[in-house]
Design goal:
There is one protein chain. This protein is mostly helical. It has a single domain, classed as MetI-like (MetI-like fold, Orthogonal Bundle). The protein is built from 18 helices and 2 strands. Strands 1-2 form a two-stranded antiparallel ribbon. The protein is globular.
Length: 442
């Protein structure tokens, strides 16, 4: 959708095509703009988690010593959030390296590895060469793993048992500047979404701009109709619930358990790998494994269960890093005190760790739902006609020439994802009331 919106804005018939002069949207800058929109939520999710557990005592001490706002920022805020910043940078780097959707639409002559893998496998049916390119795309994951581990060894807990959660005071000039910055970023993000949404209600872009709802009659076009949308809802719900549980347990074992250090290191390594595996390569791997007649798991092929497993594996890295960042803010003192009092670890997990990490866990569930609703490449090879998905139906409708209907389905996905995000925020507020006293908010 961001790539299509960029074409509507800056393409040959775009509303703002004059802004880019003769360069056009096709090429490096088009890919850069599309990827910035695409990776923004991933980076925001991790960085917001890293900034959420600042200790107010450090800022109070800095003010008492005469440190100004900028000095506090560079000596307290940035060092405390450096692990989250590096994690976010690694996630964005690997996402951009492995994404083929945006470069395929607006890349033009600017070729990238992910698009080359797509061309080799889908265009030329050259599976061996596509597999080689896929292996090359795994190298960023290996590099990211070692960088992340080096930073994690230097990470110190930001939230100890005696910590006081930081709550910034009112500062009118700073608040106005922050609102202006957020408004500018939000306007850019909403512009890309708005163009795609508007196109779904326009009869025939750009010649007949009259309003119509005909493009939402999905049963009259190819792509699976409304059934594809409801299948995506089932996929998103199952991925969010099961994925959040698995991610939290995996991150908890890596960050808070001391047994089996080698096993925990391997788990961290495998948690980083999915981010570097293009969805196309991941989907092909599932085809080769589950579609083999001799495989006893062959019955899963084409079913919703396999699609849920594939979706969780595909988006595991970002979710893992988010929960690991939240757990990394907690001092090991909590577990040490519980062990000295002979309190079982599951009691500490239920009464301390889980409530503290609840906002991050709900963010992960929301992220998994939205990602499952919007993913395409990893699932396009393993779906069956009776289990068509909304994201796949968008491609089918676009290939059939029903571009406006494809924009309508994309709009429906955006609205659904926005509704789930609001529901997640409301759920976080309700569930957090009983644990809010530790944050100094109640």
């Amino acid at each position: 959708m961001p790539a299509i919106s960029l074409v509507y804005l800056f393409g040959n018939q775009g509303l703002l095509k004059s802004w880019l002069g003769g360069a056009g949207i096709y090429g490096f800058w088009g890919v850069a703009l599309g990827e910035a929109f695409y990776t923004f939520p991933y980076a925001l999710l991790i960085i917001a988690t890293a900034l959420a557990s600042a200790d107010a005592r450090l800022y109070e001490a800095a003010r008492a010593l005469g440190a100004g706002a900028w000095r506090q920022f560079f000596t307290i805020t940035l060092p405390g959030a450096r692990y989250g910043l590096v994690s976010a940078a690694l996630v964005v780097f690997t996402l951009v390296i492995t994404d083929f959707g945006v470069p395929k639409v607006v890349g033009g002559d600017y070729n990238v590895l992910a698009v080359e893998a797509f061309k080799q496998v889908v265009g030329q049916q050259n599976f061996p060469r596509g597999a080689v390119v896929g292996l090359m795309l795994l190298l960023p994951a290996v590099l990211s793993f070692f960088i992340e581990r080096a930073m994690a060894r230097r990470q110190q807990a930001a939230l100890t048992a005696r910590a006081v959660l930081f709550a910034p005071g009112r500062n009118l000039p700073r608040d106005i500047a922050a609102v202006a910055l957020l408004a500018a970023v939000s306007a850019a993000l909403l512009a890309l979404l708005g163009v795609g949404v508007a196109a779904s209600f326009i009869k025939y872009w750009p010649y007949d701009l009259s309003f119509t709802l005909a493009h939402y009659q999905f049963d009259n076009v190819d792509g699976g109709g409304w059934g594809a949308y409801f299948n995506s809802l089932k996929l998103g719900g199952a991925t969010a619930l099961l994925g959040a549980v698995l991610v939290f347990l995996g991150a908890y074992v890596c960050e808070k358990q001391q047994a089996a250090p080698l096993g925990r290191s391997l788990l961290r390594f495998f948690a980083m790998l999915p981010m570097a595996v293009p969805g196309l390569v991941l989907g092909l791997g599932y085809v080769f494994f589950f579609n083999h007649p001799a495989n006893p798991l062959n019955a899963l092929y084409g079913g919703m269960t396999l699609m849920v497993i594939c979706s969780i594996a595909h988006f595991y890295t970002t979710a893992h890093l988010t929960v690991a960042t939240a757990l990394g803010q907690l001092d090991g003192e909590f577990e040490a005190v519980a062990a000295s009092l002979k309190v079982p670890f599951w009691t500490t997990l239920r009464r301390v760790t889980l409530p503290v990490c609840l906002p991050a866990l709900l963010d992960v569930a929301r992220f998994l739902f939205v990602s499952a609703m919007t993913t395409l490449s990893a699932l396009i090879f393993i779906i069956s006609p009776e289990n068509s998905l909304a994201a796949v139906s968008i491609i089918t409708m676009d290939d059939a020439g029903d571009t406006a209907a494809a924009a309508a389905m994309a709009t429906l996905i955006v609205v659904t994802s926005g509704g789930v995000s609001l529901l997640s925020l409301a759920l976080e507020k309700c569930l957090g009331k009983r644990h809010r006293h530790w944050r100094g908010q109640g």
